[in-house]
């Protein structure tokens, strides 16, 4: 019989509904002996209740006050998907209440807010806290991760990763909180998208010792939804150039892309690792295709294209010939979180665990330096 982890959800928007859907699809997983059950849901807008009331039969409480969820003994863990400026207060309250947490990136609107969350985690070591980052759970991402764990890439030559989409390409799209600096923060697209780009590199210790950044504001004002226009102050696109120093070895360049205005890209996550013996590349734009190049001294340098099919981190009922998608990656991420919560990191079914608070903190260090680098480079 599966162990139940009883969840509360704070923030009932797009990602809150995705978690509820993933929990409802848990029978899709074949060999996992733990499952989430949604007990409570919270949002400041009661309009969001209706979908949950209709579709989530396990709910015992719907509330506009998240403290009511934290006070309940029948809730073990919280999924929190709220605007960035609320992270420090709400995440710290969740952690101090002794509830396990999977929170949305970037874990604080800025570095100071992130440090408050980090301090709360340090003071409550029994609470499992992880950051949402589902896209590396695509089969191509998992294939690269497994190869990095098991295979010899030789010396790393270069790494490039990113998340690209075009949701802000339309200049007539009304402004929302992600385009307002008071709610989203000065990081702009970096805070909102950056964990996707940095998750895997940071997992393998590729933290850049030096950073330069090119940040762009392409659409400088947007409709306010009331017939007027308001300034759009957040960064639309960011390219971060870094250098990674490997102890006792060499340095290599690493590049991160986070773009909200990337024409032709709906929501593309990609990762490319170039080594002297092995190179691998994957993009969700071509979800079935993994690129691999093996090189032996004096041999031919040729990229292979491997048709992946459905090869997930956690086994499912889906046949291997079928195609993996975004909702599958969310289900896999949640399987990893629940697996780690139930069994501990070292006894998980597979080795790739969700993004950690330490990795979230490292993203803040990178983004803060990117802001400084850009401001300094363009002065005068």
Quick overview of this protein structure:
With 380 residues, this protein is of the alpha/beta class.
What pattern of helices and strands is seen along the backbone? EHEHEHEHEHEHEHHEEEEEEEEEHH
What shape does the CA trace take? Answer: globular
C-alpha termini separation: 66 Å
Helix content: 25-40%
Detail the topology: elements first, then pairings.
Layout: E1 3-10, H1 14-24, E2 34-42, H2 49-55, E3 61-63, H3 66-70, E4 77-80, H4 87-96, E5 100-103, H5 111-123, E6 129-131, H6 139-150, E7 156-164, H7 181-184, H8 189-203, E8 210-216, E9 221-223, E10 229-231, E11 237-245, E12 251-259, E13 268-275, E14 278-283, E15 289-294, E16 304-307, H9 326-343, H10 357-377
Parallel strand pairs: 1-2, 1-4, 2-3, 4-5, 5-6, 7-12
Antiparallel strand pairs: 7-13, 8-11, 9-10, 11-12, 13-14, 14-15, 15-16
Report on this structure:
The chain has 2 domains: 3-131, NAD(P)-binding Rossmann-like Domain (Rossmann fold); 136-376, Dihydrodipicolinate Reductase, domain 2 (2-Layer Sandwich). The chain has 10 helices and 16 strands. The protein has helices at 14-24, 49-55, 66-70, 87-96, 111-123, 139-150, 181-184, 189-203, 326-343, 357-377, and strands spanning 3-10, 34-42, 61-63, 77-80, 100-103, 129-131, 156-164, 210-216, 221-223, 229-231, 237-245, 251-259, 268-275, 278-283, 289-294, 304-307. It has an 8-stranded mixed beta sheet with strand order 8-11-12-7-13-14-15-16. The protein has a 6-stranded parallel beta sheet with strand order 3-2-1-4-5-6, sandwiched between helices. Strands 9-10 form a two-stranded antiparallel ribbon. Helix 1 crosses helix 9 (326-343) and helix 4 (87-96) packs parallel to helix 5 (111-123).
